[in-house]
Write a structure and sequence with these properties.
heterodimer, A: alpha/beta, 6-stranded mixed sheet, 27% helix, disordered N terminus, B: two-stranded antiparallel ribbon
Chain lengths: 745, 301
Amino acid sequence: MIINLFLAIGFADPFFPSLGPWLGTALLGTCLAAIPVLIHLLNKSRFIQLEWAAMTFLMAAVRKNARRVRLQQLILLIIRVLLILLVINALAQPYREHEGFTFQNNTRNHKIIVIDSSLSMGFQSNQESSFEQARNLAIRILKESNKGDPVSILTMGSPARLVNGPSYDHSMVHNQLKILKNSYETADLVSTLSQIEVTLKLLGDQPLLNEVYLISDLQKSNWLYENRSPNYDKEVGQLAGRIDDQAAIIVLDVGQTENENLGVIAVSSDNPLVTPDTPTTLTGTIGNFSRKVQNPLVELWVNQQMTARQTVSIAPYEMANVRFHPTFPREGNHSVQIRIPVDQLPADNQRWMAVPVESQFEILCVNGKSAGRFFQRATSYLQTALAPQPASAFSSTPIRPIIVPESRWDEAIQNYSCIFFCNVGQFTENEFALLKQHLQEGGAIIWFLGDQVISENYNRILYRGGDGVFPVELGNRVGDADAMNQIFLFDPKEYEHDIIKPFQSEPRSGLVTAGVYSYIKSTLPPNQKSQLVLSYNNGDPAIIEQSIGKGRSIVVTTAADSTWSNWPQSNPSYVPLIHQLLHYSIEDRLQKQTTQVGNPIRLLLPDPRTRQVDILTPTGISESIDLSTPGVLFYPAPSLQTTVSPGIYRVQDAVSNTSSSPSIAFAVNHPERESDLTKLTHQELVAQVWPGIDFVYLTDWMDNDTNQKVNIRHRGMLHELLIYIVLALIMAESFLAWRFGPSYR
Amino acid sequence: MNAETDSSYLDPEVLSRIKGLDLRARLIVEGYVSGMHRSPYHGVSVEFAEHREYVPGDDLRHVDWKVWGRSDKYYLKQYEEETNLLVHMAVDTSESMRYRSKHVSMSKLQYAECVAASLSYLTLQQQDSVGLTTFDEEIRKHVRASSNASHLNQLIHALEQSVPEQKSTIGPILHTLAERLAHRELVIILSDLFDNPASLISGMQHLRHRKHDVIVFHVLDPAEIEFPFQEHTLFRGMEGHPDLLANPATLRAAYQTELDQFLKEVRKGCQLNKIDYVLLRTDQPLDIALTGYLTRRQLQK
């Protein structure tokens, strides 16, 4: 019995934590426990001498009692050694494992029940989802709690939320649990652990034991996802360590081992500019997270109507793209949905996309060099390349370049996805701020240089040592455009960059024959934020791009007009390269109208003066929202931190809310990493997620309903018991010393 | 010398400060006698011997009223008493008798000598004869019984000469003594009796067999009875016993059991053989010994 008790004890070891659990305490305990033994030995060597006559009786007494006396001394010695060991162990903050979910003790037990509410918990098995199992388990823990136990309920989403508590009203907690619903979010482990830590502090200094029940499917892509930062592991470890110091952690695994799943991972449009009546290519990516080949029937739904379907074959643990070529008959924001048949995890079987279809796509071109003659302007060749005039059947394009002089470009840039700056001399701080915001929100800027450009101004205002909106640091001009004594050619090298990749298969495109007489030498920042797209044959950069915020900034180090090269005027590669630059820069344009569940919708409205909008949610609820900043929509308000359902949200200016006024569609989708249901093993949990953390891991909670054998370790509990044992031993020692000792007759 | 002062001489503490065994014996007897109601100084013979002045405590029956009528003084008539008692003291002078514990003023031997001397004095005062044997493993001194008043000096001399250095074997000594004593005598044994009880009893039986009366004064030091030691002690054995290192506190109960068993055995042996047994602690007043003797003495008459 006693042996069992001691086997079930662990130690925090406050004395020498560096020596690892037990060792420090053991060392100290051994040293101190040796003291009674030493005293005993010393005592033996100290005696007085006495002549004695009645030796016969004394010898007879010794002969008959030697064994008994030795035994008594040994008992006393053991008790004294034990006393010291127990005191040391009590100081070492031992914790105790106990059996069963509930710990029958006079001290109250703060139970923090954390339910994983991520999308993957919606996986159905045996008629109920993992989330429902988790909820039932939570109710069971609640029922098995003592009446006075405070209970807190947390959901493990992104972020984690304190649903209830700490509450002493178990029936209220029970009701809360019953209405608790699964979310479409991921599970954020760091946020969950932080929230647990906060919850632990809510009851202040009350004498409580804490038990944290973490009920989760232990989805690997949440707990140990790829591409996580090194800080992530550190943070998770530190948080768990701090919780471990205050509470017993019990991980209840409700994940399924048979967890085959198909999910729609992504929807994208190959062309960022979708025009009416023109076929466009939409690609759906389907993931097969199972051990066998799957052949799902993939459907394309446009504006709630199925328009196409096709079957795709996907290898185990692979993804496959399905391409559809729908035609949108009219302008406006269309909702597109890719669907696969409903499986055990229905929430990831569809994905939406909002496709804005426009007959005209306006692009802002800022002209830095005005001139009387058309082709002497800095933007003329660019304008012609983007939209040839007059339009013909062969050159019909939705692109409408809007030419503005450099003094007026800053008036309404939020309506333009892409801005071209051609030979603009200098910028101000205010202009920089506008450009920065433009990029942050997903806009694109393409810079052409020229003889007006003041390198010093660009470097100071725009480049800012690599932290600005300009991808390179500018130097001096190279070559003399007037003398034309040097010609620099483009060197595409291996055609690695996406922008110039199409030219590789077109040897007669002229890219390598375009002659540049002059350019501004530029240097890429050392932090590798910027990527080289194309260089000159002497190795200097010709085109450089950088992703800034959600947008892109691209620099062409020569001029867009014919002053510095023969490229715009006579080279066939000019027009396609300009279009390539444009498409690449606005490639992610449609993603601006897409977000993930849990993130708020942020939308810049076409009219910056808009103060009120109506929102129609996928669940059919219409809401009217007053905008705190005119022209900028946040939904829901960031302070609410509530999640939203996936689907298409439609936003309409409330003032001009007529049936004819166009609405803006916004797609909210589930996080794609929730589709992979691969579970974390216990070993991975111990070794990689929580190394050194003491927790109980349970999987068979379901089968063993009544005779639950769960060892729950409680820190800071056993030392009390040890102190009681020490007290009892002190009394026993005193009694035995009296019984064996001098005063006994 | 009043009665209270006299009786203080019965206290070993006081006696130990007085030098000379004869003086001690006198003081003991005087102190003892003055404390009693009845004076022992009376004869039982019909033959008149002499007159003696009355002292308080004397029986008024023996006052010679005729003399009072003549001289107005109280005189007692004293009679010549027949010497009909032979007393023989057997004093153990072995090494163990030398033992004296810390808080006691006399060793067992000194105490036994005091008792022996005072009993001798008392006996001689009563015109009885006293003899003495001192012994350890063999008889060291043997003084024949005599009733001569100057015999006391001889006895005391013999007692004072004893050297407690040897082992004791009491049983065989008693056998020898039984053989040696020709007349029927009252044998008084003064010893700590640290010997085999069976051999001891056998010796006493032999004495009884030879029609001797026996009184055993068992002299023990209080420490030997109570065993009060606390500290770890190296007991150095007397009479050739080996040394022993022990924790006396833990052994007390066992030691006392052993001692009690021994005392019980000796007492039982004495009782069966009609031997008077008196346990004397060396911290007790000496009147216990005298009372023991006189009780026996009166029974005999």
